[in-house]
Amino acid sequence: MMKRRTLMRAFLALAGSLAALKGLLAPAHGTALPKDRARRTTMTAHDFEFTSIDGDRLPVSAWKGRPVLVINTASFCGYTPQYAGMEALWRQYKDRGLVMLAVPSNDFGGQEPGSAGEIKAFCETYDVSFLLSRKEKVIGGDAHPFYRWAVAELGEGAAPRWNFHKYLIGGDGLLAGTWPSAVTPQSKEITGAIDAALGAKS
To answer: Which residues are annotated as catalytic?
Structure first.
């Protein structure tokens, strides 16, 4: 049984690396959104709620006034090493108010097939200490309401195209930036947008 599980993980990791080539074809840059952009909906991210991987409520409204970086993750993706950058970014900014939320999803390449316990155990290999939600869908009509709202706000082009897509929510609950998988968590694009969001907060 253990050998079979090990082989399955190796296969999924290889498949994830190959499948991530699709994500590499996407632009390697994202967008920090202007505060005065035209909005398409009357809702904000504070109207939504996630559930933690342990089953606890995670209302986004609890983080009013603080920027929140939301990233859909997977354990067997070519981008999975970004967990290390996410943790480093979280430790760099958490005392200034940043909230980091990883949203495991099996939507791309079947690269997050495990149970909540398996996902948590995997994340421990990266010393993850930021928030983890339960596994969610992030694309399509059955996507978590936050993701459907983000697309309604920004258009289909801003929908996740692969694992490790990033959305930054400002302290006011509005989307402050969005970046595709290839943009690393500690990139200047993302840290600059976080610094701006924290500056607006103060």
So the answer is: 77
